Amino acid sequence: MITHPWHNLSHGKHVPETVDAIIEITRDSKAKYELDKKTGFLRLDRVLNTDLRYPFHYGFIPQTYCEDTDPLDIIVLCSEPLLPLSIVETTVIGAIRMTDSGVTDDKIIGTATHDPYLQHIQDLPDVAQEKLLSFKFFFENYKRHENKEVSIKCFINKVDAHALVIQSINFYKENFKK
Asked: Do the domain assignments include residue 9?
């Protein structure tokens, strides 16, 4: 039996402070992978039609569900390269509130819990402002050549990000658990 990373893996043992993130896209990639909801495999959705590359590792939190009909997205900061479909225990430090084509599409921001080089980052203000601005720039521009509108509303702190994680877990239970 094949395990489905969205439905069969846990969102973590210490939610909402830490979550298990499933990596879809590695830092510095132009390849945009999406979880194939039916099979659980990663499907190449597109190659970014821009010079931009993902400035972070990107994935989702298992057993979560959001307004955009996908699992909750997560940005994972890590000093090392990560492999697609790897499970990374991630400390939640904040989130980006945003819309994509008019639909809420929030992104949790976290650090790889077991990365000793990032232990000093415990909340969003601990992240360099330049790094946060690079995230904003990336999301505002990565779909520009596709004529899709992405709007960044704001960055939120870890307490509010924890609430987003809990909300998405509860929404998953309402929609997928019998």
From this structure: no
Long-range contacts of 160-163 (CB under 8 A, 24+ apart): 160/94, 160/95, 161/16, 161/92, 161/93, 161/94, 161/95, 161/108, 161/109, 162/16, 162/17, 162/92, 163/16
Sign of CA dihedral 27, 139, 6, 167: positive
Helices (H), the chain: 129-141, 158-176
Tokens describing residue 64: 């979560």
| pLDDT tens digits along 91-134 | 999 999 999 989 999 999 999 999 999 999 999 999 999 999 99
For residue 6, tell me if it sits in a domain: no
The pTM score is 0.96
Could you tell me which residues are beta bridge partners of residue 22? 60, 87
Range of the structural domain that residue 132 is part of: 18-172
Domain holding 146: CATH number? 3.90.80.10
